[in-house]
Design a protein that fits this description.
The protein has 121 residues and is mostly beta strands. 0% of the residues lie in helices and 52% in strands. The protein has no helices and eleven strands.
């Protein structure tokens, strides 16, 4: 059983930066695909970025020039660095772990509870 705990969210002004962390326990981040998803009020959960167990990364088109995903295997933590934030990035951000890298939510077996990011204009 993998447990994921997100942190680092908060209120930030447009154009600012935030780094989210996802601390994993019960399993190594080097053995799973770790993804970030987000969900805004009234909208479906959407893919943001994923890092495979090999370390390959994919980001959604809407964030690929602004967000980056990375991991620290020693700390068993995955990060989402978010730069040039926009009000439309406001959402709850979730970390997820699964055996396969995917932009869909269904292949992920484990989910954190999420962290709120609010971008003010």
């Amino acid at each position: 059983q993998v447990t994921l705990v997100e942190s680092g969210g908060g209120l930030v002004q447009a154009g600012g930066s935030v780094r989210l962390s996802c601390a994993a326990s019960g399993g190594s981040v080097s053995r799973y695909a770790l993804g970030w998803f987000r969900q805004a009020p009234g909208r479906e959960r959407e893919f943001v970025a994923v890092i495979s167990w090999r370390g390959n990364t994919i980001q959604s088109n809407s964030v690929k020039d602004r967000f980056s995903i990375s991991r620290d295997t020693a700390k068993n933590t995955v990060y989402l660095q978010m730069n040039s934030l926009k009000p439309e990035d406001t959402a709850v951000y979730y970390c997820a772990a699964g055996l396969t890298s995917s932009i869909a939510t269904t292949p992920y077996d484990y989910w954190g509870k999420g962290t709120q990011v609010t971008v003010s204009s």
